[in-house]
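agent> Task received from the user: take the single chain below, predict its 3D structure, and emit structure tokens. No templates, no multimer pairing.
agent> Plan: (1) validate residues, (2) run structure prediction, (3) serialize to tokens, (4) report one or two observations.
agent> Step 1 OK, no nonstandard residues flagged.
tool_call: predict_structure(input=
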Amino acid sequence: MANLPSSTLTAIFELQRQIAESVAETSSIEWHLLKMFGENEQTMPEFEELQNIKERLTSAFSRLCVLLLRIMEA
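)
tool_result: status=success, residues=74
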């Protein structure tokens, strides 16, 4: 088992927190956009972009978690 310094673990957990907050913020923006303007031809590109952002953030979060686990198992 690899022992990472506390400062490294703290940095990783801080990145995870920031990513999670970004996902929540993106979802909030998406909800407000839907509430204010509805889902129509003009807003669809924005909804698609917000969905892409959430997917990239989720992927980054998952990769970071898997990487941390692999390091800890080594």
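agent> Step 4: summary for the user.
Residues 14-73 form one domain.
agent> Done.
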